[in-house]
Design a protein that fits this description.
Length: 79
């Protein structure tokens, strides 16, 4: 892979490391936003309907409701 192709992976890896390290609440919020955007994008790439995505989100009890709501907003933004 080229250095340019590795850049997003490096950024995500850095975000995950910060999250695992218990960084500040501001950084956790950024991670929640990135996570929500990623989930919304992937659901769209899989071709899920809104109701299907709502169902999928409901099956993850450990994900905070505000993160699920943000993921649904992002999902709808991609349509």
């Amino acid at each position: 892979m080229s250095a340019r192709a590795d850049a997003p992976r490096t950024e995500v890896t850095g975000l995950l490391q910060a999250w695992r390290g218990g960084e500040s609440a501001g950084e956790e919020r950024v991670l929640a936003i990135v996570y929500a955007e990623l989930q919304g994008l992937v659901a769209n790439l899989y071709g899920l309907s809104e109701s299907e995505f709502v169902h999928v989100l409901s099956t993850f009890p450990l994900i905070a409701d505000d993160v699920k709501s943000a993921a649904l907003v992002q999902f709808n933004n991609f349509h």
